[in-house]
Amino acid sequence: MMYTIGELSRITGLSVKALRFYHKKDLLVPRSVDRETKYRYYDKENVEKARMIRTLRSLNLSLEDIQEILRSGEELTIALEKHRQRMQDEVSRYQNIVRQLDHLLKSEEKIVKLLASKISAFEEKYVEEIYVVSTRYIGNYFDSIDILQEMFEKIKGQVTGRPLNLFYEMDFKEKDADVEACLPIASSLVLPKGITARKLSSTKVISCIYSGSFQDFGHVYEEMMEQIKSLDYKMGLPIREVYIKGPDTEKNENDYQTEIQIPIED
Predict the structure, then answer these.
(1) N or C: which end of the chain has fewer CB within 10 A?
(2) pLDDT tens across 166-215, in order?
(3) Where does the pLDDT of residue 229 fall: very low under 50, low under 70, confident under 90, or very high at 90 and above?
């Protein structure tokens, strides 16, 4: 199974810019690069390596430290124990990192099984056309929470379904993401002055429902992309995330429920 750089970005949460930089530094070398187009293609081994790099970077290891771990083949648990000892010298600043290290030293197999149990069966379907009030913006993914709340306040009692976001790019971006925040409404609704609606057309998608934190979406996208590629479909845009249960209904992020819909073409 091969992935483009944009697909790998969505799966791992690493920006395309970061992936290109890691290639330049020989930290994450693609499985192949097209000689004519220069497009990079990544395999499953690259996916796991990218996740390791992202995790180790989040734990404050330098690129030089990560490169040494990957080059020397030092056992990951041993390397993490060494870093944990260094962090304990500044416990007040690094308590959160130490907890993450403890978590990483647990069985990865248990984590994978737990994530798998939270993903529903994949469904190939047509989503019906709906009318929405929406705001398209460039920014952080989580900016949509405040935007959706602001729109909701303007059309109180007129929302007919759960909020959703449309993502117009395949690759993951820490900022400057192209997102459209949407609230479903009835087509006949008379809107307040300054508020406009539009129709989201019916489209064919592969969808699944994931129960859990937004932070774990990378694994879900990986499973969905594998399913789509195995059926010889092409992935389209925008990707939709429908927030069945979210911050507005649940206090614990592990209780969130999200339906992810990826458009497909023959």
Answers:
(1) C
(2) 999 999 998 899 999 999 999 877 888 878 899 999 999 999 999 988 88
(3) very high
Structure-model confidence comparison of residues 10 and 104, the more confident one: 10
Residues 68-85: what's their mean pLDDT? 79
User: CA nearest 246: which of 103, 141, 95, 99?
Assistant: 141
At 16, is the pLDDT very low, low, confident or very high (cuts 50, 70, 90)? Answer: very high
Query: In whole angstroms, what is the distance from residue 199 CA to residue 182 CA?
Result: 11
Same domain, 149 and 221: yes
- Angstrom distance (rounded) from CA 174 to CA 176: 7
How many domains is the chain built from?
A: 2
Are the beta carbons of 34 and 3 closer than 8 angstroms?
no
Cα distance between residue 174 and residue 171, in whole Å: 10
CA-to-CA distance for 13 and 173, rounded, in angstroms? 8
Separation of alpha carbons 214 and 226, rounded Å: 20
Query: Does a structural domain hold residue 44?
Result: yes
Domain-ending residue, one of 107, 142, 166: 107
**Structure-token match 């180790």, residue found:** 56
Question: Does residue 124 surpass a pLDDT of 90?
Answer: yes
**Residue 47 belongs to what H/E stretch?**
helix 44-58
E strand or H helix at 227, and its extent?
Answer: helix 217-230
Q: In the listed set 42, 75, 107, which residue is the last one of a domain according to the structure?
A: 107
* Parent domain of 10: 3-107
Residue type, 121: A
Q: Which residue has the higher pLDDT, 43 or 254?
A: 43
Give pairs for 71-78: CB < 8 Å, separation 24+: 76/52, 76/104, 77/105
